[in-house]
Write a structure and sequence with these properties.
- The strands form 3 sheets. The protein has a 16-stranded antiparallel barrel.
- By secondary structure, it is mainly β.
- It is built from 3 helices and 20 strands.
């Protein structure tokens, strides 16, 4: 891990030479989305109305040595915090960036199917705790630094991104000169995530990622790690996609081993310039290992499957997007026999 830290320091030092910036350009973009959500009788989710507000402040420019730079801050939370911030410096040798609760390198959304948004990431019925384990953690949830290879450096559109989070206990919205929180080692000291993508033929994009959490955890049987891969192919008005993920949460030495796998796939069809339809499925499996009790009794291993189905439609009229998204889940939250259904109606305005 020390070698990775030194690598990033060397890259950052190289980029910091001649860092006088020319005056850049600031733009403000964003949108507002109003939604009405309706749950069925078997779901724990009730009716709800809401309006989300997302504002992006983006500045770009050049350094006096010809390097480019981009700064962006996103305000999409309940308070006006320094939320989801990035500073990227583009060089002939690649891009070096610092991300504050940004820089997701996971592959779970790479299959890209969803007229309103990708599958369960757009809307799901399971609890937030379940959502955090089915795909596993990713570097975008931590403050991190990354290096991206230059565009067109490698054949077949191959690109490599590697990121490093030095403090897994540090919170969102860290400002310049802020001291980080003391590392609790709840998941380890740091994390490294790597992602590789390629576009071998027109219309096809593929990729994979891997993240591992490292550090001294003396009572740990397994460290946290997750991986994923995706493929998406677009031809004319039709797009098909497929993705798989696996997550091994941190497991204490004496604990039952639990891990998760997922397979997500679907198809999207652009009826015309205004109307888009999509259908996707996600199959999740929770694997629980066998356990030998104190008296020598063995509890058998078990698997529980949770399946979700998504139907979405988006229609663009004027400057607004009208949408409907229906999600149905069997064995919701990995509870056998539990079913849930949510329907989301939305009106989105972009500016």
């Amino acid at each position: 891990m020390n070698k990775i830290t030194k690598l990033f320091l060397v890259i950052l030092s190289a980029v910091s030479m001649h860092v006088y910036a020319n005056a850049g350009e600031l733009t403000v973009t964003g949108g507002a989305t109003a939604t009405m959500v309706q749950g069925n009788d078997h779901s724990a989710h009730g009716k709800a109305l809401g309006v989300s507000n997302e504002i992006d402040f983006t500045a770009t420019g050049e350094l006096d040595n010809g390097f480019s730079w981009k700064w962006q801050a996103q305000m999409d939370g309940a308070t006006n915090l320094n939320d989801d911030t990035r500073l990227e410096v583009g060089t002939p040798y690649g891009t070096v960036a610092m991300y504050i609760s940004e820089g997701d390198l996971s592959s779970k959304l790479g299959y890209g199917i969803g007229a309103m948004g990708v599958g369960d990431d757009y809307k799901n019925t399971f609890s937030s705790a379940t959502g955090k384990v089915v795909w596993g953690k990713n570097l975008g949830g931590y403050n991190n630094v990354q290096y991206h290879t230059p565009a067109d450096l490698l054949p077949l559109g191959i690109a490599l991104k590697v990121g490093y989070a030095p403090n897994l206990s540090d919170g969102d919205g860290a400002s310049a000169k802020a001291s980080g929180a003391m590392e609790t080692n709840a998941l380890g000291e740091d994390a490294v995530q790597t992602k590789i993508t390629a576009s071998p033929i027109d219309g096809l994009s593929i990729g994979a990622d891997y993240i591992v959490f490292d550090g001294p955890l003396n009572t740990t049987r397994y460290k946290e790690e997750a991986a994923g891969a995706f493929a998406k192919y677009a031809k004319g008005p039709v797009t098909i996609g497929y993705a798989v993920t696996g997550n091994q949460p941190m497991t204490a030495a004496a604990s039952t081993t639990v891990n998760y796998e997922s397979a997500m796939y679907g198809v999207q069809f652009a009826v015309n310039d205004a109307l888009s339809l999509s259908y996707s499925v996600a199959d999740y499996t929770k694997h629980t290992s066998s356990v030998i009790g104190a008296a020598g009794a063995i509890t058998a291993a078990s698997d529980v499957d949770m399946d979700t189905k998504h139907i979405q439609a988006a229609y663009v009229v004027g400057g607004a997007t009208l949408g409907v998204a229906i999600v149905e889940t069997d064995n919701d939250d990995f509870t056998t026999g539990a079913s849930a259904k949510l329907t989301t109606f939305s009106v989105a305005m972009a500016f």
